[in-house]
Design a protein that fits this description.
alpha/beta, Rossmann fold, five-stranded mixed sheet, 38% helix
Length: 314
C-alpha cells in the first residue's frame, strides 16, 4: 500500500508532528485533509495543497467525500494540564478517539494510525522496553490522566480492529522534536535550547537522572507513514531512536557544550518537577525492532535534532 494518490485525514494537523506529517504526505503525492480548530494557524503552517476543514475531534467529525486513511494526531500535550486539568485531558483524549473511530468505521477507511505516547508503559526502570512491557500506573494520581486515557484509547482502537476488522494501528512516540518547535514551548528540551541560544545557564529543576530516548521529527513522520502503509492491524509500534538514550543531565550537558557558545553551564536549581507536571524519575529505552521490520530506521541523533530546532528559531 502507498499513500500516493490517497486521501488522508489528519487531525491535530497544526501541531508540531501533525503539520510536519501533512507536508511530507503532500510531498509523497497524497491528498491531505486537515481537521483544524484555527484556519489562521492552518494557513500559516500548512502547504497550500492541504484542504482544511474547521472542526474539533471532541465533536462529531464532519468531512465530506471519501477518505482512505486517517492519522489521529490531535490531543493535549501540556504536562501542566495533566496536573491542573486532568478531567478535560481525559475527555479530550478518549472522547476524541471515540469520534475518530466512529468516523473511520463509517467511511470504511483502509487504515488508521493513532499517535500515542511512551507514557503508556508507566514508570519503568528498563533499558529495553518492547511493545508488551508495562509498569503500573497510579489511577488515583491526577497526573495519570494522560497515560491512562491514552491506554484506554489504544484499547478502543485495538478492540475495533478485532471486532470490526478495522486496520487500526498505534504509534507510541517518545519525545519528538526538531525544526518547528515554538520558541515559547515549555518542555525541557526547548528550555535547554532557549538557555543555550540566549547564553544563559541551563537550570535543572530535578537531579536530571531520568533517562529516555528521543526521536527527530523527520524520523517520526517517516515512521507514522510506514505504519500507515505497512503496519499490522491491532498492533502498536514504538517510535524512537535508541541511540539517543541519555539522562536529562547528559542532554543538558550536550546542549551547553555544543550550542552554548561557551557562555552557559548546567546548574541545579531545586526540584519543582512535580509542580510542573513532570514525571518522577524513570529509565526507559524503547525497543524499535517491530518498527524496523516495516523498513524504517532512525537517521538523526540528538545533536542534529537540537541543531534543527535552533536553526528553526533563527
Amino acid at each position: 500500500m502507498s499513500v500516493d494518490g490517497k486521501r488522508v485525514l489528519v487531525t491535530g494537523a497544526t501541531g508540531l508532528v501533525g503539520s510536519a506529517l501533512c507536508r511530507e504526505l503532500v510531498r509523497r503525492g497524497a491528498k491531505v485533509v486537515a481537521l483544524v480548530r484555527s484556519p489562521e494557524k492552518a494557513k500559516a503552517r500548512l502547504p497550500a495543497e492541504v484542504e482544511t476543514v474547521v472542526g474539533d475531534v471532541c465533536a462529531r467529525i464532519d468531512v465530506s467525500g471519501a477518505v482512505d486513511y486517517v492519522v489521529h494526531a490531535a490531543g493535549p500535550t501540556s504536562s501542566r494540564d495533566f496536573v491542573e486539568r486532568p478531567v478535560e485531558v481525559i475527555d479530550a483524549v478518549f472522547g476524541g478517539a471515540r469520534n475518530v473511530l466512529d468516523f473511520a468505521l463509517d467511511r470504511g477507511v483502509e487504515g488508521l494510525v493513532f499517535l500515542s505516547t511512551m507514557e503508556v508503559y508507566g514508570l519503568t526502570d528498563s533499558e529495553r522496553v518492547a511493545e508488551d512491557g508495562y509498569a503500573p500506573l497510579d489511577t488515583m494520581c491526577a497526573r495519570s490522566s494522560y497515560p491512562e486515557a491514552k491506554r484506554l484509547a489504544e484499547c478502543l482502537f485495538a478492540s475495533a480492529a478485532k471486532e470490526h476488522g478495522l486496520r487500526a494501528m498505534v504509534a507510541r512516540l517518545t519525545q519528538t522534536f526538531g525544526a518547528g518547535v515554538a520558541r515559547d514551548d515549555r518542555r525541557v528540551f526547548a528550555e535547554f535550547a532557549r538557555a543555550a541560544a540566549e547564553g544563559r545557564d541551563i537550570v535543572l529543576k530535578s537531579s536530571g537522572a531520568t533517562a529516555r530516548c528521543y526521536c527527530a521529527l523527520p524520523d517520526a513522520v517517516a515512521a507514522i507513514i510506514a505504519i500507515l502503509e505497512r503496519g499490522e492491524a491491532g498492533k502498536a509500534y514504538n517510535v524512537a531512536n535508541p541511540s539517543t538514550f541519555c539522562t536529562i543531565r547528559e542532554m543538558a550537558e550536550l546542549v551547553a557544550s555544543e550550542f552554548g557558545g561557551g557562555k552557559c553551564k548546567v546548574v541545579l536549581g531545586g526540584d519543582s518537577a512535580a509542580e510542573r507536571g513532570y514525571l518522577p524519575e524513570f529509565r526507559m529505552n524503547l525497543n524499535v525492532d517491530r518498527l524496523k521490520e516495516l523498513g524504517w530506521s532512525p537517521t538523526l541523533g540528538l545533536k542534529e535534532m537540537f541543531g534543527q530546532l535552533l536553526e528553526g528559531w533563527r
